[in-house]
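User: For this week's homework, look closely at the record that follows, marking any run of repeated tokens, and judge whether sequence predicts the tokens.
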Amino acid sequence: MQLEERMKKEKISIPMTTLDFYKYEIDGIIYYEFDATECSPPEPMVNTLNALRMIKNENERLVGYFFHEPVPLYAKIADSFVHEAKELENGDYKITFKKT
């Protein structure tokens, strides 16, 4: 089965967010994903902080796409989450957040 077939994205609603969020599962890990590349501050941070409330255990991740690396956000979540940042070819960033 192709990866695309395994990760059917379902649009979901997350309280106190203004962006579209999607949920999908790959290999037993549940992902919540959003795209903040077209947003202005503080919208990306506000949406991220509210969406992180969805992450309850080690089998869940939040994936956000940002127009720059959201360094100020990292300090706000350091006690509860770790992150992996990847710069994309177009200069945007894909950040994956995981509960510690």
